[in-house]
Write a structure and sequence with these properties.
650 residues, alpha/beta, 7-stranded mixed beta sheet, 6-stranded mixed beta sheet, 16% strand, disordered N terminus, binds manganese (II) ion
Length: 650
């Protein structure tokens, strides 16, 4: 096995996602958690001899990361990504098209040992800030040659996923990246066949699709990506955005590819899915075969959650019968304290020894754990969370948010109520998203009234602007939305051949008020050309754990414990004579990229609109190096440059 891994034809790729750097960054205890976990990923990538690190979005928690967060992030990248180590693979595709600049390790002025490839997520997507060009925080790292930012879409009216083509020895990997878009919008474009994947005409590639969207797990039809939308010829999907770790590749619902969902490296909300052990994954690809070895992260604050139904708790049966309010509160408090105490013990036991004890950005107060107890308090009053948490200061990192009260759940015997989404609302909201979502809904409800209906601005757009203003801290969000709407409306009027001089327009609106139904039809029709920086769903509220800081105990022993079967191959990088190539490729990059924001050209994607029907292959076995997947024979080989062909998704 060891020899296999040293094979010059084996691509070794460290896969991780949703690092959420800067999460809780003002919290004295939890503030460095996100950095510690990311540092472990970087070090594992180097120690396991990864050719590169692949990230699936939400590297940053905030759209505008604080200076402190940027500083820490760049310190980590400087330490672990920049080095003299040789890079043993090459980029075959047009780098300008992929990254808007050359790939970072080929820049002759820097020395990159661990290339990083990343798409953006919903938290760190590009925004305009009142300027012409949308920039993401990843652009800053990209221009500083610290990572390679790919998967950004340049068109407002269609999606064209153009791969980064990589070659190492005889193995070729096509990396398809799609940075996050609002789910409804992406879904609509997919249905309208405005989503295209470009495929190289020659050569056999192992195709990896990296995306950052809601996954279809019982969510609304239009607010997620369904596996059936993904081209059947993709080999492996790296699914970002979903924070629960399901890193072991699973057969997709359609049976044509595998899905790996690494999950976040730091718990961003205190829910069950985040309590699963955190992992990154070592993906190895040789030819058409792959295997993925999960690596458990140790620089993760232990987190357990549980739930209790008060009127079923044995300790409280007496109090219920008596119904005495005062005693009741004390009894409830004692009951919950005992349960939380047990949770703290459980959490401590889940801790694994730290893999590294010489971290640049170690976790603060690593002894403190995260616990969450969901309390169904039907028949009882709630307690003050902050007051209750006081007794756990110094042991629990989220003392002000330990308990979560609810009354939804009736007796455990009664059927669980399923939440039925109403028209216009999105998926069920997480706790913490609730406040923001309620405002969305409030505005929607207000403006849905017949009289109050907005005539030109749409309420969805207004909500998007609101989210941009609040979540992305974009002070121009409203002004830009109004501007875009005006431009759309003007265009629509030109197209209709309406009068264009101000006086006749005024006259027209005076005598014929627009229909009360909805926005004018023409506005609807052209709304596909809408902004590409539409804000996404509101960010989760940060649990306001005001940690009372305890001295950080130094992390302990080094441990190479992984759940996978593969021992680490010695770091082996073919020292390639890449400098000469670097000079060459650097010389000819004078292409000036234009922003195709107002691209009005007709979309011909539907001309040849029926892609081959997906056939259901038998579920592939996880067995790594055998049983290559059948794949379409490559088209007639093309000499010289990489020739791409479009493929329309259905
Ligand atoms: Mn995320």
């Amino acid at each position: 096995m060891a020899e296999e891994e040293e094979d010059d034809d084996v691509f070794t790729i460290m896969v991780a996602t949703d690092s959420h750097l800067g999460y809780c960054d003002r919290d004295a205890v939890r503030g460095t958690d996100s950095f510690a976990a990311f540092e472990e990923v970087l070090r594992l990538a180097n120690d396991r001899g990864a050719d590169f690190l692949l990230l699936a979005g939400d590297l940053f928690h905030d759209n505008k990361p604080s200076r402190r967060t940027l500083f820490k992030t760049m310190s980590l990248l400087r330490r672990y990504a920049l080095s003299d180590a040789a890079v043993g693979f090459e980029v075959l595709s047009d780098q300008e098209a992929n990254f808007r600049q050359s790939v970072n390790y080929e820049d002759p002025h820097v020395s990159v040992g661990l290339p990083i490839f990343s798409i953006h997520g919903n938290h760190d997507d590009p925004t305009r800030e009142g300027g012409v060009e949308a920039l993401a925080a990843l652009d800053l790292l990209s221009v500083a040659n610290m990572l390679n930012y790919f998967g950004r879409q340049g068109h407002a009216d269609r999606v064209e996923v153009s791969p980064v083509l990589l070659r190492k020895g005889n193995t070729r990997v096509a990396l398809y990246g799609l940075g996050n878009m609002r789910d409804e919008r992406l879904n609509r474009m997919w249905q309208q066949k405005r989503v295209r994947f470009l495929r190289p005409r020659d050569g056999t590639y192992f195709s990896i699709f990296v995306l950052h969207q809601n996954r279809d797990v019982g969510r609304g039809r239009n607010t997620c990506v369904h596996e059936s939308m993904i081209p059947a010829w993709i080999d492996l999907v790296i699914w970002g955005h979903e924070h629960e770790c399901q890193i072991k590749p699973r057969e997709s619902a359609v049976g044509t590819f595998r899905v790996c969902q690494p999950g976040s490296s730091v718990a961003c909300s205190l829910v069950e899915g985040e309590a699963k052990p955190k992992h990154c994954g070592l993906l190895q690809v040789r030819g058409a075969e792959f295997r993925l070895t999960p690596l458990r992260l140790t620089c993760v604050r232990p987190f357990v959650c549980d739930e209790v139904v008060l009127n079923e708790a044995p300790e409280l049966q007496d109090d219920m019968d008596e119904g005495d309010g005062a005693d009741n509160a004390t009894a409830v408090r004692d009951c919950l304290a005992a349960r939380v105490e047990a949770l703290v013990e459980r959490a401590r036991k889940t801790r694994s020894a730290f893999r590294y004890d010489d971290m640049l950005l170690p976790m603060a107060a690593p002894d403190q754990v995260l616990v969450r107890l969901k309390v169904d308090h039907t028949g009882f009053a709630t307690l003050n969370n902050a007051k209750f948490g006081g007794q756990f200061v110094g042991r629990v990192a989220n003392t002000s948010a330990i308990l979560h009260f609810s009354r939804q759940k009736q007796a455990s015997t009664s059927a669980a109520k399923t939440w039925v989404p109403t028209e216009g609302s999105r998926e069920p909201v997480e706790e913490g998203e609730l406040a923001a979502a309620a405002i969305d809904q409030l505005i929607q409800d207000q403006l849905d009234g017949q009289e109050a209906k907005l005539q030109i601005l749409e309420e969805t757009k207004m909500n998007e602007a609101l989210n941009g203003f609040v979540d992305k801290q974009d002070p121009q969000a409203f002004a830009e939305e109004v501007e875009r709407t005006l431009v759309r409306e003007q265009k629509a009027q030109y197209k209709r051949g309406d009068a264009t001089d101000p006086e006749s327009i005024r006259a027209k609106y005076r005598q014929a008020p627009p229909p009360a139904k909805k926005a004018p039809a023409a506005v609807d029709a052209s709304s596909e050309e809408d902004s590409d920086d539409a804000p996404k769903k509101p960010a989760k509220k940060k649990p306001a754990a005001r940690g009372r800081k305890k001295a950080a105990a130094p992390p302990s022993s080094e441990d190479e414990d992984s759940e996978g079967e593969a021992p680490p191959p010695p770091r082996k990088r073919a020292a390639r004579a890449s400098r000469a190539r670097k000079q060459a490729s650097y010389a000819d990059d004078d292409d000036d990229d234009d922003e195709e924001e107002e691209d009005d050209e007709e979309d011909d994607a539907s001309a040849d609109a029926s892609p081959p029907p997906k056939k259901k292959r038998g579920a592939r076995k996880q067995a790594p190096w055998k049983d290559p997947a059948p794949r379409a024979p490559p088209k007639a080989p093309q000499p010289a440059s990489i020739d791409m062909t479009g493929w329309d998704s259905d």
